[in-house]
Automatic annotation (TrEMBL):
Keywords: Cell inner membrane, Cell membrane, Membrane, Transmembrane, Transmembrane helix, Transport. This is MFS transporter. Its main location: membrane. It holds the Pfam family MFS_1_like. It is a multi-pass membrane protein. Gene3D superfamilies: MFS general substrate transporter like domains. The chain crosses the membrane at residues 7-30, 42-61, 73-91, 97-114, 135-154, 160-179, 200-216, 236-258, 265-286, 292-314, 326-351, 357-375. It comes from Halalkalibacter kiskunsagensis.
Amino acid sequence: MRRTNNLLRLMAFMFFCFSAMTIVGTYLPVYFRDNGLSSVEIGWLLGVASLASVIAQPFWAYMSDKYKSIKRILVLCLVFVIGTSVILFHVESLATIAIMMFIFYCFFSPINPLGESLAQKTATEKKISFGKIRVWGSLGFAITALISGYVLAFFGIENILYPFLLVILITFLLAIKLTDINLTDKKATLFTALKIGREPKFLWFLVLALLITIPHRTNDHYLGIYIVELGGSESLIGWAIFIGVITESFVFVLGWLWFRRFHELTFIIIGGSLYSIRWICMTFVLSPESVLFLQFFHGASFGVFYLSAFQYVTKILPKDLLATGHVFFLTVVFGVGGMIGSLGGGLIIEYYGISNMYWWIGILATIGTVSFFFYRLVVVRKEEAVEDTFEIHG
């Protein structure tokens, strides 16, 4: 019974921590645009947030591995998130906003990756699918995006702080009740942590994943603005996110049915291919309703890519550095990807328009997908060679 309660608390935590990310990640660019900031200025602010993520996420992940506690790091970060969020939404000058964005994201950005790492560890210990836990994050993201879209449309985007505070306070209360899972008694050291960054197969994987996640993060930052420019409202932004994440949830729940049969890299290529088609189609949409239709492909692109990539990374990482490795992966592909996507996307929008931005990220995703095809040929061939050698000597 106690183990069941622990799992339920973790699922609830995933629901609300992703809900908090929805409010900030989806509506913050719209909030800044409503306050009169240009696309380039918004891009710089989102780039600052991504920079903070790149610095903070590996640090907090390493600390959680070093002290064998994800829970304590989550509680600490959430305390600071609550305090800094109040200041962030009350400052006005661009320089002050940038400073507060950096501080806020130093504590906010590690929460979801650490939660996902705890979910993966819990799934491994309980011998259940990671997707069955992670899906609650997707549901939180989807439902909150839909509800907050209507709330902000009614009360005004300037009141974004209040729904965020409500959700983040619930997340904090749930974090206090979480249970740490340690799959090994071996403590992480700085030396062993640095070894992750020197593994060639892992490094090449991260570089190629960036080619697909930069377009993904660019869309995350500017989808809301695109919908508004096409004549949609904040509530329509909520529907777009809801549709996309609900389709993603089906992939997380049912992924175990097919991931056992084929190599993870095969599904990464499939996900990347669907990404490419999706972004290029976004170039030609003429109404916000067309964007909603294309959101049905989110689960088949992001869901397949992310679940495959996370499982592949888990397979090749040492157990005593799972939190560090998981967050390092998420930091690079989504943090660095977000930084490049926000800055590059803002510049393209400013000079060429948002529809042209989607054309360029479609091309980038295509390059990444083709590159993964050749990466798979090399990696799988080496894995098969090792297995053959083992069978001969066995």
